[in-house]
Amino acid sequence: MKVAAIQLNPQDNKEENILSALQYVREAANNGAEFIVLPEYVDFMGEESKKVMLGETIPGPTSNAFASVAKEYNIYLLCGSILEKADDKRVYNSSMLINGNGEIIATYRKLHLYDAIFEGRYTIKESDTIKPGKDVVTADTDFGTVGMTICYDIRFPELFRSLALRGSKVIFVPAAFPLYTGAHHWEILLRARAIENQCYIVAAGQFGIAPPDHVEFGNSMIIDPWGTVLARAPEKEAIIIENLDLGYIDQVRGKIPCFNHRRPSVYSKLITNESLQRHVEG
Hints:
alpha+beta, 7-stranded mixed beta sheet, 8 helices
């Protein structure tokens, strides 16, 4: 499985962003990539208030453009994420997986929304404009089962374990990870998700500055089941490509059979929503 992660710097011009992304997809496909991953918010990075206005349906103009190039090159294309119309007040942050026939075979709507307050630095509340999804999503491909996540999801190991238990051997993480937290947490979290689930992680991130005051960390990565970073994007828009040896997953799981050692019956007794909430509240 030859996979490419594309690192981009989307701005607040939707049409230009899509054209740029398609250009990079073609370049990656011409370099032999069979499975290509784009970043989160590949269609727009700008004022939060504009997101609802720019939301569109899936299928729609943006998905059709991506489907056309996927079919042209007979590739799998994970479209990072785009703004999908939800209602009059919010949109979904949605990731689509398109196959080589130009068919949307899976759509994942971001489950965990990034609401964070860093006094003296910045405040962001994704939930003001984004409506959360409700489903854990995997997709069956010619290379096996893959799992879909978006950005902030990497802080929730329950989701990644759920994807692994559903058979995912590769999990995708399109992202627009802020520089401040990215410098401290991005690589650690990605490698942890790969190690604990003994799977490949392919993370395509945004890089650089975008309006009004976004500064994204970049450092797109492809990580193997042992936690080794196989490829890392440079400090610019770029494509990283790596051949994934899916048989290596079985080797790693055979050496340390974590999935066979799980104790789900014990976990369910120890952690319920009610008991966990009591613990959090002190």
